[in-house]
Give the backbone structure.
Amino acid sequence: MTDDPRLSFKEMCARFDVTPRTLRYYEYIELLAPDREGRSRFYGPREVARMKLILRGRRFGFSLEEIRQWLLIYGKKGERQQLENWLGLADRQLTELERQRRELDSSIEDLRALRATAVAEMEKLG
């Protein structure tokens, strides 16, 4: 057991349940910047925190470019313009998620009605 608080590449993939390809891509587009020692990569607390934000952003439906902006804001807490930009992104995404929820609710209602019709038809058949 090591005292190194950093995670290896393999540990980072396992901790966040992402593929090596995904992790390498996030590095390639500069969302993450691990420490490098030879061919090995190590992720410290900063990169772990950034990965949490990346995955949270993806769960909320943000694009990777929007997440990049989010990470810029995260790195510079308290700057009014950046926080205003973040609020705009959040408001837009909330509107989109609410629209998707309405569509999903409508689809569920339609499917339930269709299912009820099928059940009634089966009962007629005996």
Summary: The helical segments are 9-16, 20-28, 45-59, 64-75, 80-125. The beta strands are 7-8, 35-37, 40-43.
